[in-house]
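The record is passed on directly below:
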Amino acid sequence: MLTLRYSHRPLRFNFPARTSRGALTEHVAWYLHVHDTAQPSVVGLGEAAPLAGLSPDYGPGFEAQIQALCAEFNRRALAELLPEHAHQLVGEDLPALRFALETALLDLQHGGRRLLYDTPFSRGEAGLPINGLVWMGDAAFMREQIQKKLADGYSCLKLKIGSLDFATELQLLREIRAVAGPDELTLRVDANGAFAPAEALAKLTALSEFAIHSIEQPIRAGQWPEMARICQESPVPVALDEELIGIPAEEQTALLSTIRPAYIILKPTLLGGLQRTLQWLHTANQLSIGWWLTSALESNVGLNAISQFAGQYVMDGFPQGLGTGQLYHNNVAAPLHIQGGALHYNPQGVWELPE
């Protein structure tokens, strides 16, 4: 019989992580532990870490929802539950929790070793190229991060923009390009919806001077006609991020067909798990829209699940957004490490089981 319980850990940032929704100093991760009573030492682990101001399931009642899930799961006295059936117990309004249950079941299915897929990445034979993330802050703080990422060998940087005055942000990009041209370094920017629709195209034209690969979410989500116009006219390719959150499966084709972005950003914690992410991925492929996977400030448990998924479905060496494992000084210990701008996994490494 399967048994489900939970634990949690307040993750503490190494620095105040500034976003367009404010600065974060702590982020609570909740962990689902599932095991078969016949083999109690084999535990599947999944993480639910909803984000304040962004996740539909973030709020003071989240622990009660986890408790209700565990109670219902255990009441059913299940002999088996496949990962793809996690939706039977967790609705679309709880995407982070569905991601946690799905990945816990997937981990259990594969022996409770945090090896969710058999790929060159999970076997430790190949790394996943990732973008180096430059957080919002004052110009000196951002400049320091940029210099370190370049020294660490990243070939793709992503800058959060929209918190400084625009002229300062352009100057930072100018400094980067003075050091590394487009052939050496790919530049992505993320506005987190900071631009007003009326000013977006003028700002995108200014950004295009620096050979920007893409801009994530230039305007707030929910403005489909305005976003479609910007995607059509922008000199910088547009990627949708927050736009995808809360969109039911039956509307995702309509969204992408209407807006026609160059890319979409796939965050399983915000989209409702790996199966829902796979649906977005397939729809994007059908419409010839590019995509990449990004973690959403999970601890190493969630980051590992997304990375293992990426190892299964990413085929082209396109940099993913999976460089958030070093944000916390009390992260769950895991055999993940970054080297030369790529994320690597050591299958012989030791995992901490959060309690």
Q: What stands out?
A: The mean pLDDT is 94. Residues 80 and 316 are 35 Å apart (CA to CA).
